[in-house]
Queue: 3 jobs
Job 1
Amino acid sequence: MSEKSLTILESAKQIASSAESWADVSNALFDPVDGLLIKAYPTRPQREAFLKTEEYGEIRGLLESAIDRTGLISGATPKKSGKFLVRLPRSLHAALEREAAEEGVSLNQLVVTKLAMQVSQLTSGTAGQ
């Protein structure tokens, strides 16, 4: 057992003990961008080697325990981060950036405001009027 794999296992145990659903455990461990394992073992050969360790077996057991605790179906919905990625045409992105600069707000603030206004209009029945 290497020191690194033991550290990863301890981190995984902390994640599993505080996660609200098995999906949160899975995302925290296996997300291909921000997951614990991808950060610890950034290359494919490193990850493949780790998959053969006892520590990885224990991590899989943590995930299985989380599934048992939260339920396969009910635990499948992760806690929402409040973030999502939207792909835009470059021209629309540039137009939104210009508008945000003109308004003196961040691009995020501008887009959140525009979305909130649309949702408000839809829920109040004033959309398209």
Job 2
Amino acid sequence: MNRLVIQKEDLRHNIEQIKKYATKSGQDDNGNPLKIIAVVKANGYGLGIVEYTKFLIDIGIDFFAVSTVQEAILLRQNGVKEKILMLSSTAIKEDVEKLVENNIIITIGSQNDVKIAEEVASKKNVKIKAHLKIDTGFGRYGFIYSNREEMIQVLKEMKNIEIEGTYSHFSVSFFDEKYTKLQFERFLKVVEVLKMNDIQAGMLHICNSSAFIKYPIMHLNAVRIGSAFVGRLSFQNYLGLKKIGYMESAVTETKTLPKGFNIGYSNTFKTKKETKIAVIPCGSMDGINLTIDRDTFRIVDKLRYVVRDVKDFFKKQNIYVKINNQNCKVLGRVGTYHVICDITDKEIQIGDKVIFNINPMFVDSGIEREYR
């Protein structure tokens, strides 16, 4: 049976490294230690949101952030009592009601968000806890940084919403220092305007994993850590973080194919000689040979991927897996649920263990997660 294995000691190492680095940045302006907000969206970056969150709690993390209503409620249903921040703002009344009922800190970033939250608060006769989101150039959630008068007017009319924090999100902190600094400056100016208008900004946070590591001066009161915990970064790994998660499977069939025999979809590979193969029940649905690179690099990198795709069309893939600690080349295209490996001249049997290096985020949530 396929399973995603999470190495507990390596994960603990990453958490401790990040906590040490956070401690080095010192204290905020109020003398408080830097707060770590653990982002556990996308099924805990593939590690299993409930198991992963509880592991983080055991290591001393007590503030979490999610991206969907379902993620937030799932944590509450599984006994997580710590603070949870909903990073996506919403003006859908039913969603706000569910969040408030489950004591989730909401995000407000528009007049509509405030209007609906006020309606829910009035209906339930409660004060709603919220973080204020500022759009400093991401183009997603939040009050646009330059529309300060409109934002101030909306915030001053609030009666039942308590702002516990104010934040923004960097779009290219993994490589563009100039734009990252511009976003940071925009954020600080908005915070200053809030203070000038006697609006409490609360906890300030803007750093994601990459900005946390690269720009200590931008730490403010808190940082949001996601990909750094699992050791999968889009830039140089300065902290010696270890990549977390690998897929474990087993050989289900072996056989010998004759010379000139096609393997896999589209006939992209043909044996040049008699070849012994192993069939492994793992494929793209299990995250095999999938990456997020194309979403996280510069234009020049994207051009390189286009060139690589063209070249790959005319040449064989060079993907390897480990079977009994032996490197075995994948033959043909990776299928939805299967891969074929060359085991010629290797002592490999049905049932032998197979290890795939994969990104846990791409592993189907139905696959078992095992913490070892």
Job 3
Amino acid sequence: MAITKITEQNIPEDWYWSTLGEVSDVIAGNPAPQGKEYFKNGSYPFVRVQDMGRLGAKVHMTETHDLVNDKAIKKLRLFPSGSILFTKSGASTLLNQRAILGSDMYVVSHIAGAIPKESITSKWLYYWMKLIDFNSLAHATTLPSLPLSRAKEIPVPVAPKEQQEGIVEEIEKQFSRLDEAVTSLKRAKANLKRYKAAVLKAAVEGKLTEEWRKQNPNVEPAAELLKRILAERRRNWEEIELAKMSAKGKEPKDDRWKERYQELNGIDNGFPMLPKKWIWCRLGQISDVIGGITKNRKRETYEIKITYLRVANVYANELRLGKVSKIGLFDSEIDKALLRKNDLLIVEGNGSKEQIGRVAIWDGTIDPCVHQNHLIKVRFYIEQMAQYVLWWLLSSPGRRFVDEVASSTSGLYTLSISKVSNLPVPLPPLDEQIQIVAVLDPYFSSITESHKIVETNQLRSNRYRQAILSKAFRLTFAN
């Protein structure tokens, strides 16, 4: 809530308006001790901004990551139990984080504390401060900051002590009910995630199509499908090589040039058993795996500019195209870099296990469009296979293979064209792939809709908290 005109709001006759500086001592925290010697064998809690972030929905700060020692506290000011903490500098200022100290602690300088005076209780002041939006108070700079002089001017309604305690009790009763509802929402969200994972796993193991296989015994086996794809792949390579030689004015004298063709090694054994007519193959056997465009400043001067996708545009089975830019290309780069509908996009990653291997199918929304080098493009020889392979890579067994090939001895996670090409894929007959996708679509439409409902209710719970506080303090509006 912005503080503008707050004091014009009606409050009960036995209440009065004051300011934060009048009802509490507002004090800045301490410069953080520099050097390990101040933390060695430490026993005194030292609150940092990160500790505020870790609180979540908790009211009281009861523990900290860092502990300082006797040498450090000689130069530090102690904040008493019951102080209300709020971040006052840095981006976290705008997050409106608040906490009540559960015991005496030392506090870093990016945080300030309001130490309540006799007229007001800690919880009353804490819950009131939860209504104040620091976005309207902080200096609008690259690193936001809230001057304590401004903080001291924040209006505070003061009720008689008995009313403060009764109102706080009612707030916490309402919050407790809300917490139970939020816990149920989180449980529902987790159940949806587990259900989705179980359905995906069953699909890529052939369990969802067991009955279908009995009713369709004469489909082309996956081994024959792979043989057809590999033959087409070789033909394409030969056509490209002949075109290259022709462009240079050369003609092959014999077939020895064909020996340059390299085929990925298949998968013979060592992998889980598959249903009849399924086989294991490598992703690079059924597709072309292609890298993207490396961004640099020189490209800003190129005449040809095309919209391109970045890592930030690709998530798990989701394209986020709200923010896209253009990149300069040479004419000779365009054919290789252009995206086609049903290309699979895989995030190469930058060492983060959470980011690595996010995968989605390009839907052709933007045309023309290319992709940067941190996205790997997978173009299938049979486009219909893209959706099945997407589900495989999103499944728990598929994800394990991605993590295995992406990990390194240094602890960093990254993919490459060769790693993606070598990813194992359990390949069903093409007709069965199409059936698996058809079976999964209604499942996931229902799961997605349920997930949206849960997300919406979680967002509502935050608004309910603000509404509860506004009502408790007799306010008629809340921003």
